Amino acid sequence: MYNPFEYRGFWWLPGKYNENVEGVLKYNPGEELVLELTGSLTDLKKVTEDIQHDIILGFSSNGKKITLYKCLSISLNVSMPGFPTQTFIASAAFIGEHFESIEEVRFKEVNVHYFYLEEWLRISGMNINVEQNNRERYFCIHYYQPDDIKVLIDNWILAIYFTVNYSRDRADGLKIKETAVVSFQFKEGLPFEEILNKIIGRWEDFFTFATGEAAFPSAIKAFVEKDSKHRETEIVYRRINGSTTPKKLTYHDMLFTFRDIQEKFGAFLNNWFSKAEVLRPVYNLFFGLRYNPGGYLQYQFLTLAQALETYHRRTKCNYVRSPDKYEKMMNEILNSIPNKYVEWLKEKLKYSNEPTLRHRIRDIFKDFGLVVDKYIGDVKGFINEVVEARNYLTHYDKSKETEKGKDHSELYNLVKKLEVILDVCLLYELGFSLDKVEELLSRNPRYRNLLENIE
């Protein structure tokens, strides 16, 4: 996933090996998987059509089986005289195995290594002792493999296991590297996209939330039962979000680490996954910004405001009056106007019993104000600013352009404060007590900096 590569070889469609053509598969982190063919896999009569293939098979010059998944032709050039060339982009590549159809792409186990994982876990099996006797110094290195960590989630297992590798040469001396891997294990093989979107994707949201940086896999390996054998394949796919260059990060920078949840790791993960369906729109909005930082402030603000509103809608009471009282009130109103205006007014009042954004934010402060108030400052003023800025940036009412248009620093402050509130909401949903949430925030450099610069 992290290292670029090129595979030269022969490529063909399932069941059409005799029609294989020469080409090269190229990949750079953060970019598309591109297959450039010297020849064509497509009937040249269809040159004007959109050309897609579920599967393209390949065999590289260094002997690797390769399956390209969900491929789209982006160019098909035909020269007379000459020969055709064709270029595909693929959604994913499975290196080490051939799958004849999408239905065959199922895995019983997928193992992923992430940047920052070892720092987040802070678990080591290495013990180094230094002894000195006169002029001689002895280094004693002892290693024990830490126990695997396993959590049952629904009918599958998330496991974290540990390995160690060492190398020695004259130039670099002795190198010892401990590595942790997250393993997703299933009783039966699951479709690739289900694993990626519903399981690995939700774990990556969790890990991103914990570390404060986009979860970025450095390597993905999967195992499949085929021909009565347990076979391994490497998975590469283009990530549509997240940096391709991980930054330096220590556990001090993280919102919480494994040690903070070690005793309740299983409960916390099950909370995260069990609430994912209800909170999915909140996750999508909130982590969409985490995976793609640096967008326009206006977009960041509107996204966070929408995430906060959606969180309230999904977790709190979503009406102002009881349904019975509201229905009675609506009947009285509609019965009091001419029939020709009834449908028009019903449409206008369709959402009139739902809380306003102002009401929703006030509700959230009632639940979490003891934690977030000090990061906000003037709570009433903050709520007014959020509501007014959201209304202006949604409708761009020209008459309010001077009055409601925020400058860069004002909007930036609103964005940072909305992030605090959403962090607190999700920490609470994850299973942290409010006292523990306050502890996590107070020790984090990002929140300490916000507190020092509160406006």
What this model shows, in words?
There is one protein chain. This protein is of the alpha+beta class and 455 residues long. It has three domains: 5-102, no CATH class; 106-271, no CATH class; 278-318 and 355-452, no CATH class. Helices cover 39% and strands 30% of the residues. The protein has helices at 117-121, 192-211, 258-261, 265-274, 276-291, 297-315, 323-335, 342-348, 357-376, 379-395, 401-404, 408-430, 434-443, 445-452, and strands spanning 5-12, 21-27, 33-38, 52-60, 65-77, 85-95, 106-114, 126-133, 136-143, 149-153, 156-169, 173-191, 217-226, 229-237. It has a six-stranded antiparallel β-barrel with strand order 1-2-3-6-5-4. Helix 2 packs across helix 5 (276-291) and helix 6 crosses helix 10. The longest helix is centred in the C-terminal third of the chain and has 23 residues, at 408-430. The chain is globular and about 80 Å long. The mean pLDDT is 90.
